[in-house]
TrEMBL record:
Domain Cytochrome c: from-to ranges: 60-157, 220-305
Recorded coiled-coil stretches: none
Organism from which the protein derives: Oceanisphaera avium
UniProt name for this protein: Cytochrome C
Record bears the keyword Transmembrane: no
Length: 352
């Protein structure tokens, strides 16, 4: 299930103390990523290391974006309304393939999203994460937080596309407005080394998103999923799915309840959660669960109560009709209760 490593926690604390981001010893940042995960070799592109951090203002933005990404709950309480960090859904600090990697996401926007029925640029995609996955309040357009997160994604994308020939000194330095757009645009400044090596201006991005998972032989089952959760997930996420804290800081994220993602988040859909779980959980053991187990445990997790869908105007049935499809159990009866009828509030600790 969604894990946050103790390594990330301890080092995120040190990052929080960084006043001048670029002054940090970048050699030490390499160990601040999410707990080491199993990586495929050769099949997927490799993101850049910290030794290839750009200098100057862009490098500072990249570092701040990284910090927001791995310790969102501490550094962005005005935007984050629960106990999650970006890295919980995008493991290995947004670098791991098949875990919705940030480098692939950046090159996939602007793009149309059915969720809000319009073309979204990259900053709008991030805003959606804050509203739903973080159960919070999105940063305003063009805010420094969105610029920094976009800069981190831009750097990962350029480095991942270019590979061994990546030299951050040769990377274009976009304006803030350009950073916020994303990389799927005609005027994106692909690096010369990438193009000289035959790189396409419409890259394929292997490892993007979460790979689709075939439907299971048996319909997903809550009781079977509960057993999988108890055997494979509870050791980190707690028997009650509420995560684990150290010094009031979540080190293992809650999977349901008031501190988890809300009913509008993509992860509340059983298929999305099953795809994530199959490829990434238990952490460091991708593929351990059978397809059936992944579907079952996703069914169990996604039929627990959680914060309200922020698009709701108070009528659960209408909210289901307007926004929820077949893979969502919001508004249906489970264990004698209508899911969504006892949801916790959105962004309950929003600073005033």
């Amino acid at each position: 299930m969604f894990k946050l490593s103790s390594t990330t926690l301890l080092l995120s604390a040190s990052l929080a103390a960084i006043g001048s981001a670029y002054a940090v010893d970048v050699d030490k940042l390499a160990i601040q990523d999410e707990l080491a995960v199993t990586k495929s070799t050769g099949e997927y592109p490799t993101p850049p290391g910290w030794d290839k951090l750009p200098k100057g203002e862009l490098g500072e933005k990249v570092l701040r974006g990284y910090q927001y990404f791995v310790d969102t709950q501490t550094l962005a309480p005005e935007f984050n309304g629960n106990g999650l960090n970006c890295v919980n859904c995008h493991t290995d600090a947004g670098k791991k393939e098949n875990a919705a990697p940030l480098w692939a996401a950046y090159m996939s926007y602007p793009a149309f999203r059915k969720k809000n029925n319009k073309i979204n640029d990259f900053q709008e995609r991030i805003q959606g994460c804050f509203m739903f996955s973080m159960n919070g309040t999105p940063p305003l357009n063009d805010s420094d937080t969105l610029v920094d997160l976009s800069a981190y994604a831009y750097w990962l994308a350029q480095g991942t596309l270019t590979g061994d020939d990546f030299d951050a000194n040769d990377m274009a330095v976009p304006s803030d407005a350009e950073l916020l757009k994303g990389g799927k645009r005609d005027d994106f400044p692909f690096m010369k080394a990438y193009l000289d090596a035959g790189g396409s201006k419409e890259p394929e991005l292997p490892g993007r998103g979460y790979p689709k998972l075939d439907k299971p032989e048996q319909a997903p089952d809550i009781a079977r999923g509960k057993k999988v959760f108890e055997q494979e997930c509870a050791v980190c996420h707690g028997a009650d799915g509420q995560g684990q804290q150290v010094n009031e800081h979540y080190v293992f994220p809650p999977l349901w309840g008031p501190e988890s993602f809300n009913w509008g988040a993509g992860m509340h859909r059983v298929n999305t959660a099953a795809e994530f779980i199959k490829q990434n959980m238990p952490l460091g053991q991708p593929g351990k669960l059978t397809d059936q187990q992944a579907w079952d445990v996703a069914m169990y997790v996604d039929t627990r109560e959680r914060p309200q869908d922020p698009r709701s105007k108070g009528d659960v049935a209408q909210t289901r009709k307007d926004f929820h499809g077949a893979m969502s159990y919001y508004g249906t009866e489970v264990d004698g209760k209508i899911l969504g009828s006892e949801s916790s509030p959105n962004h309950p600790r929003k600073p005033q």
